[in-house]
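Sequence in, structure out. Go.
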Amino acid sequence: DAAIPVEDFASLKYVRVGSAPRKLATHRAFEERYGIPIIQAYGATEFGGPVTEMPLALYPECGRRKLGSVGLPYRGAQLRVVDPDSGVILPPGSEGLLEVIAPRMGPDWIRTSDLGMIDEDGFVWHRGRADGAIMRGGFKLLPDTIEEALVLHDAVAAAMATGVPDDRLGQVPAVALTLKPGAREPGIEELERHLRQHIEATHIPVKWLITDALPYNGMMKPDRNALRDMFLKAGEG
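Output:
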């Protein structure tokens, strides 16, 4: 957004990030502009630091193919995905809670509150926090998944998703979005078609709102409770 000249970053070989998932559209735009790979890592205080990282040496081969992955486990670290309710270990490609053995902290498995997936090649994908999930008739949906797909649309500047009550399914996804300056306002059907190209049908929002501003808290993080209240008040009206 700051339009920093490309030559100002000429000395950088790569950028390493790991404090939180970053938006794929931003990741892609940065690499296309500057030609510098963004290396994503995954860690936590309870692990004593990072436990995975996208290997820089493999980035030319699989960086694009694995865009969004937090990489492979460090030597000695182990990760697995388990069912949130039963604790059963899930096969590759399944989404569930991440558990970690961090060599710095000892030999025991550490249960996290992070949703993730490990693919058939062993690459780890961090999907977000389980406590922010939307439960739609037994399907667990992550707001980040919907938001990241929406901002890939040419007209969408930012998006924020939350769950709202539903008598039949328990919760359904609702999304608010802002548009890029001068962009043509897309219709709901167009946005739904766009989403179906990127995410599963269960994630398609039921309620939509195009607005001038999205609600953020004092730390400039999405305020999904405030967003939920916006939809509930709109429904009452």
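Check: The CA atoms of residues 216 and 222 lie 5 Å apart. Residues 224-236 form the longest helix (13 residues).
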